[in-house]
Design goal:
heterodimer, A: mainly beta, five-stranded antiparallel β-sheet, 11 strands, 58% strand, globular, B: mainly beta, seven-stranded mixed β-sheet, four-stranded antiparallel β-sheet
């Protein structure tokens, strides 16, 4: 059975800290891995990763994929209170109509 | 502005009642999806549609039904057969399949049982 597992499930840090969120997967016919940020209601897209070892970066956020070890990490440096959210990892298999398999999410809380 | 609109934001269902959640998009996207979100379980796929008048079951379709009569609309009906409907429901759309572009999500509907 395809599955995506995120860790930790929740995390509390202080502003300025650096955090690393983990996502491991066991998915047949892997096509891509995606990260979303869910602050209140609608998840918003962060990154799509398809190739191993190539870092995607956007401001203080970065992510990388390891297709051999079947995991991805999302790093956030110099965290701010606005980074508080649930971070969702999802994997898209080939030939399943764009269906995404989501992990449980990591709830990040950044304290002032 | 282009986007996905879900309504209502909050919905209450009585025992034995069917309720319908609305999802409308003006992004001209072909593919639309319904996900259910429960605390600690992430998002799970209920139904998806790649094209008008066609849809497929996702991982947890039992107790739900959908229709796709128009490209912009993908309503979800939670039937009385769904015994544990309390959850947050998210609708999403994408420009193609596989999702070469990111999924766009609506703001969700919180469904509760009275």
């Amino acid at each position: 059975e395809d599955k995506v597992v995120q860790s930790p499930l929740s995390l509390v840090v202080h502003e300025g800290d650096t955090v690393t969120l983990n996502c491991s997967y066991e998915v047949t016919n892997f096509r891509s891995l995606l990260w979303y940020k869910q602050e209140k209601k609608a998840p918003t897209f962060l990154f799509m990763l398809t190739s191993s070892g190539i870092e995607k970066k956007s401001g203080r956020l970065s992510s990388i994929l390891d297709k051999k070890e079947l995991f991805s990490i999302l790093n956030i440096t110099a965290t701010q209170t606005g980074d508080s959210a649930v971070y969702l990892c999802a994997v898209e298999p080939y030939n399943q109509g764009g269906k995404l398999i989501f992990g449980q999410g990591t709830e990040l809380s950044v304290k002032p | 502005d282009g986007g996905i609109t879900q309504s209502p934001k909050y919905l209450f269902r009585k025992e034995g009642q069917n309720v319908t959640l609305s999802c409308e998009q003006n992004l001209n996207h072909d593919a639309m999806y319904w996900y259910r979100q429960d605390p600690g379980q992430g998002l799970r796929l209920i139904y998806y549609s790649q094209i008008v008048n066609d849809f497929q079951k996702g991982d947890i379709a039992e107790g739900y039904s959908v229709s796709r009569e128009k490209k912009e609309s993908f309503p979800l009906t939670v039937t009385s057969a769904q015994k544990n409907p309390t959850a947050f429901y998210l609708c999403a759309s994408a420009n193609g399949f596989p999702a070469d572009e990111k999924l766009f999500f609506g703001s969700g509907t919180q469904l509760s049982v009275l």
